[in-house]
Write a structure and sequence with these properties.
single chain, mainly alpha, 2 helices, rod-shaped
Length: about 80
């Protein structure tokens, strides 16, 4: 290989690695959307994307209010 080709490939390798990492990270996006769509009402959305489920106290609304099972806010 010529010296120019080697320099060109050396520059592209980190770009390809970064693209691969990005693609692997966005592969989790569909699970995010399904978690938000599974919320009971339009007013409720799960804001904690790392644990997309009801908490021990209840469901977290998009305003950050925790509702218990009877839809009354917890003081």
């Amino acid at each position: 290989m010529s010296e120019q080709t080697v320099k060109h490939l050396a520059w592209k390798k980190p770009v390809y690695i970064a693209m691969l990492v990005f693609i692997l990270q966005i592969s989790h996006v569909p699970s995010l959307f399904s978690a938000v769509n599974s919320a009971k009402d339009d007013d409720e959305a799960i804001i904690n994307i790392f644990s997309p489920h009801d908490t021990e106290l209840g469901r977290v609304s998009k305003k950050g209010v925790i509702y218990n099972r009877y839809n009354s806010t917890l003081g």
